[in-house]
Design brief:
- This protein is mainly α.
- It has a single domain, classed as Na+/H+ antiporter like fold (Up-down Bundle).
- The protein is built from 14 helices and no strands.
- Helix 2 packs antiparallel against helix 10 and helix 6 packs across helix 14.
- The protein is globular, with a radius of gyration of 21 Å.
Length: 337
């Protein structure tokens, strides 16, 4: 097995470089205010472009496979939050209270879109269903994630999420998304032809939020509160959550009678969490000084899920190739008989 599968991608390297830059050269004062404005503009543009890119016809066509979509949504918005709460006695001693809040927030996030579809395709799963399931998760998450966050934090004893925060999410994320959907008839084709633009805005907005978040956290003494044993504990917590989600989606989909292609879609769409949605939402929902601790679990989980799912996707694909060869051999034998 090639070690390249386990190496971080270019965007992860950019994230690491951004954290190092924020640690050495944190923005403050008027510079921080400028970065805040740039970040808000970039996030609004990001969700506008996502709205313009998402095909309503594809979503409507995929709604016929409702059992699969409900299973993915249940894994994303029910299973994960329950895992975060029920495993608290085991997981919370491994990390600080502030980091555990970040883990609970991670559990409420929607699924990824691009990587879920890509891994489903590599594994030879139901790609059209993956497009619909991941897109629906991302769209629903704009509304349900802040509500779930409030419920989970209240159950954790952190107090309920204010309706003001929910309103800010709607204003900053949902309104641009809807505007993009409205404008799709005029700019949808142009956006589809310039997909690298969305990738640039996507990654650029995340890097801006990470830089401002870690700048504020560093000024508050982040690294003094985060020794290496705690980072190790965070990796263990993320690994436990990811493993539990992968096992639950794999064997749960089989118990529900889904075929192999649908199982693949459920595994890759129902076990992932979106860094692209999580970081902008965290910026709206949490105070600036707490953002570093909130986004760190998401950043680590992002890299962990990419490495793990890359290996799983190739194994699914290899198994599909072997089965296809056996089926072809059986057909030839039958023809010979």
């Amino acid at each position: 097995m090639s070690l390249r599968r386990f190496l971080p991608d270019n965007f992860t390297l950019c994230l690491i470089a951004t954290v190092i830059t924020a640690s050495l050269l944190p923005c403050r004062g008027s510079t921080a205010s400028v970065f805040e404005v740039l970040t808000d503009v970039a996030i609004g543009l990001l969700f506008f472009l996502h709205g313009a890119k998402l095909s309503r016809d594809a979503v409507v066509a995929g709604l016929t496979h409702w059992r699969l979509h409900l299973t993915v949504l249940a894994s994303t918005f029910v299973l994960f939050p329950l895992l975060g709460l029920l495993l608290k006695p085991v997981l919370s001693p491994l990390v600080t209270p502030a980091l555990y809040v970040g883990i609970l927030f991670l559990c409420t996030l929607p699924s990824t879109v691009q990587s879920s579809i890509a891994f489903t395709s590599i594994a030879r799963g139901n790609v059209s269903a993956a497009v619909c399931a991941a897109s629906a998760s991302s769209l629903i998450g704009i509304v349900i994630t802040p509500l779930l966050t409030g419920l989970v934090l209240q159950a954790h004893g952190q107090g309920a999420m204010s309706w003001r925060s929910v309103g800010e999410i709607v204003l900053q994320l949902f309104v641009p998304f809807v505007a993009g959907q409205v404008a799709q008839r005029w700019i949808g084709g142009w956006v589809s032809r310039h997909r690298p633009l969305i990738g640039f805005v996507d990654q650029g907005s995340i890097l801006l939020v990470v830089y401002t978040a870690f700048s504020a956290a560093v000024l508050q003494g982040l690294w003094k509160q985060l020794p290496l044993p705690v980072l190790g504990g965070l990796l263990i917590v993320n690994a436990v959550l990811l493993a539990a989600a992968l096992l639950a989606t794999r064997y749960g989909s089989r118990a529900l009678g889904f075929d192999r292609e649908d199982e693949i879609t459920i595994v890759f769409c129902g076990s992932k969490k979106s860094l692209a949605s999580g970081v902008p939402m965290a910026k709206v929902l949490f105070p600036a000084h707490a953002l570093g601790m909130i986004v760190l679990p998401i950043m680590l989980f992002h890299q962990m899920q990419l490495m793990t799912c890359a290996v799983l996707a190739r194994r699914y694909a290899e198994r599909a190739g072997i089965n296809a060869q056996k089926a072809a051999g059986a057909t030839e034998t039958a023809a010979a008989d």
